[in-house]
Each structure stands twice: as structure tokens, then as C-alpha cells.
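Reopening closed ticket. The problem is back. First fold of the pair:
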Amino acid sequence: MISFKLFDGDSYDECLSFAAKSLPNAEKCEMADIFESLSEMAEECEVGISAYSGCLLVRIYDGEYIFAYPIPMTEDADEDCALDEMRLYAIKEEIPFVLTDVPGECAEVIEEKYENVEILCEDEDE
């Protein structure tokens, strides 16, 4: 079962080290870029990170919990497996399983795989 490590300005190096150990084959420059954007987000809300099946997992709390779609960080990343693990985490923690930043091509698969799915899209073309 995954757990999320709280990410904030004070824990930047610790969280980056945690991600690097959890995702040893990840591209370091790409990971640093992602952590920079997470640092900006962490100034406004609570951000937690985890890693599973070659993906970086992000949990965001800004009055309610949401999860970023798994970010593949290795060549053999399994987004579906990471997604299932995040769903199990949400069930265990008794919080809604709400995803953000879902790639358009993945929306139909998610809709087929899970019950009670509602897809809201900012761009009707995607």
C-alpha cells in the first residue's frame, strides 16, 4: 500500500531524494522540473508525493483531496497499475478518488474501468 510524503519548501531535497530512490531509472532533469512546479503548488495547498510502478504520484489537498494522473517517470512505467494503487489508497483513507490532468486518450479507459465516473473537460477538443 502506498503512502504519501508531505512535500513543502522545507522538505524539497528530502522529497526529491525519496523520489530518486523510489524511481531510480527516472530522468533526473525531468524529475527536477516536476518538483519545481510542485514547489510552487505547495505554497498554496498541501501536496503529498509517492511513487509506484515507475510513476510519480501526487496527492493535492486544497479544501478537498484530488490526485494528479500518474506521471510516468521510467520506460517501463505502468500507469494503470499506479492508478489502481491510488484508488485503493483513496478507499483505505475514505476519501473521494478524484483525478486531475487526465490525458484525453485515457479518459475513455477510465470511464470503462471504474463505476460512477464523471468527466469534466476544460477543452472540449481533448
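Second fold of the pair, where the issue appears:
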Amino acid sequence: MRIAENYFRQIQNDYSSFPGQFIISLQSADAPAGWVQRKIGDWFLASHGLPLHDICDRENNLIGICLGFPHGQDAPWAGIDEFYLRTQGKWLLILEEKTIYHDPSGSLSVVYSDRAIASSPTLLQPEPDWDIERISAVQFPEVDSWFPFGLTSRRGIRRLLPNHCFDLQTWKVKRHWPTSSTDLSRENDPLPLVENIVTNLRKAINDVPHPLTLSLTAGRDSRMLLACSRDRAIDIDFYTFDYGRSSVDVEVARRLAKRLHLSHRLLPVRTASNDELVAWLYRTGHSVSGPIWQIHKTLDAYYPQNVLLPGMAGEVGRAYYWRSKDQPTRPLEVDDVLSRCKLPRLEMFRAEARNYLDGLRHLDTFVVLDLIYIEQRLGCWASPSYLGNIRSKYEFTPFSQRRIFTDMMKLPTEYRRHQKLAKDVCRMAWPGLETIPFNECSGGRWLLQRLKSRAKQTIKYLIGKY
């Protein structure tokens, strides 16, 4: 391989560092040594550190297996839509030996070849068939990059996107949400929707039966999680990556911790060695790179008995991929999608983007942009990166719920454009948190940082306008 050959070295037959991963195959021999196995019809499911939960109907007949860390799955089966509405956490559902579903943000990674399904491409191709052209196109892993539209770094292996399911009989993928009857209209009173979001975030946090670790930053998404963790805040381990005195996150986190008397740690940022970088890519299936790859050794400071709850996916409520020129009836072009995902405008990606958009033409542009964020950014970028965290008991974002995604997508257009959700969540869940500015320093540093922020906003406005 011409590019970054060193990073594509394989650590053969070493799956001891793959906690939280799985493989589903017709051959028992495909399972790594020492993994727990279970037969499901003709299939063998092998996993390392992922609990199995029986899913039964009202007559207690087994109709499926849920793998991972679901919360709320114990009620009798009442259909897949109802299961999504009541089940939180990080999970994979194998239903009646026929269909595979995963949680709304795909936080339990799923990839597939022509013969098996697994959490990581590494488990499916011990002798990898690298797609050198694709790898070169996204400059992986030299820049902060990932593979879109369900593609991976290997030929013959694709990723199952959120809101899609996999048919074990036909070996085909299909979209199961949103349907034609799904109400995603945005002409709504925002406050009842915010109340629902707060209620479901609180439930997701309170239902975790383990100690918690949460990030404390200057941003909106972590602030919403902080507000909704109020019932458990006294026992939560809050942390902030310590990038030095110039860090806005460090300054705001200290203010929050002092005001609320939180147990808060600054974690010195540790850069991984070359061998550690290679091992992380191997474990995550050479799927994503960037800052978390380079500093993942910092995660060694996490407590192994704790569940890590990142603020990922709160960006849906902030209209992350929307631009000022967007209109609901103005269709997205292929290059619009590639530009927003920061992907090269090459035909290999244009063809994938075209096929992806063809399945969404019946939806308005704002809904499509939200789905792009959930399915591409969360499903293809965040999902495989979770596999790199082998320190925490497990990791998932509380925002990854069908009810929360629906409610955030139904918030009024201008409400979302003006970033009002975080303040209202804080005001409702923990009054006073909204008074500490987001992403801002104090004193002279505040003025300098404010000028930089205004400059960035002006540039983004001009880019969106033209």
C-alpha cells in the first residue's frame, strides 16, 4: 500500500482487546477463541463482553435476541416501532432469526460482508482487501477522516446505517424509518417538545444501572446532559480534557463544577504511541481517524466500572448541517451533501451520495439534512469510534432515542436555527445552568474569543449565502 502503510499493519489473531464486539456467522469456527457463543436458528452469535437479552411476546414465546446494553427492553413485544420508542441504550436486535436492527444512532457498530455480520471489518477480513483508491481519497488516516454512505476501508464490506435493517434471508438492507406516515412537521409549540426531550434524557441517564462518567465542557450538548443528570449529579464522575489555560472548556467546566459542587477531574491529554495508534485502528476496523484516535490514551483515566455518556447526537437539535440558504422545498444536490460532510467531490462518492439521496426524495430538505447527520456522521463516524473506548464499562449517548430524535426534528425551524434548545433544556431541567454562556471565556479572554467567534460566524454566513 502506498499511503501510511505502517497504520495498516494487522495484529493477527489478537481479539483479546475487542470488548463490546460481536460476530454473527453460519460457521461456529468464525468466532474468536474464548468468546461467548449462542445458536440462533442457523446462525452462530459470538460476543465479547456484550450481554444477551431474550425478547418475548405476551405468551412468553421467544421472538428475538437483543445484544448489548438496552434499557427498557423487558416489556412484552408489541412490534418493532414500539420497541424503538421504549428502548434506550446501546443495542442490536436479532428478530425471529430474520432481521437485524440497531439503536437509533447505530452506536453498536454493524458491518457486513457477503457471508457474515460483525461489529468491525477486522473481524470479517483477517486478511484485508484494502480499497486503496477509497483510502487515498479521504486521506485516511493522515487527516480527520471517515468513510461515508456505509462504505469501509475494505472491498466487500459495508456498514449498516442507522434507521436501516438487515434481512438475513435476502442479505439486503432496507430503510425502516422514517416511514411515509411519520410526522416530522416543524410547525409546533417548542415547549412541549422540550419537556419530552428533558423527560427522556432524564430517563436514559437515570436508568443506567452503573456509575456514570460525563464530559464537562463549554458546549451545549454536554450542558444539556449535565442539566438532565441533576438527580444523579452528586455521584457522577465529571471530567474535562485539559488542553491548558487557553482552553474554553477548562475555564467553563471549572465554573460549572465550582458552582454546582461537582466531582470534577481535569484529564491531562496523552498522545498515543505509534504502536497504540496501529492497535486502535485495528480494533475499530480502520474506519475513522482524527483527534480521538491520536489522544485515545487519555481515555485510560476513565473509571472501568463507569458508563461513559458523551453528548454526541445533541447536534440534531442544533440543525448541524443546515445552512442559511437551505429551504425545505429546495432539493439537495449531490455536491451539497459531500461538502457538508467534508468529503472530496469524487465520482466514487458522488455515485454513493446519489443513490442515498434517491431514497429520500419524498422528504423535505431539512429532514434529509437531519437524517444525513444521524446516518452519516453518527452512523459512520461516531459509531466505529466507540469501539476504540475499551476502558469504560460501555459508552452510548443518551440522545440516541427515537423519541428524542423525532422531537428534536419537529422543533420549529427558526427555533433550531437560533440554537434555543440547550437554554430551554437547562432552564427546565436545572434552572440557572443557562445563565453561564456557552463556549465563552470571561474577562479579556472573553473579548478576544468573542471577536474570533464573530469572525467565524461571518465566514459561515457568507459561505452559506453564496
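Update: turned out to be a display glitch only; the data is intact. The mean pLDDT is 92. The two ends are 40 Å apart (CA to CA). Please close again.
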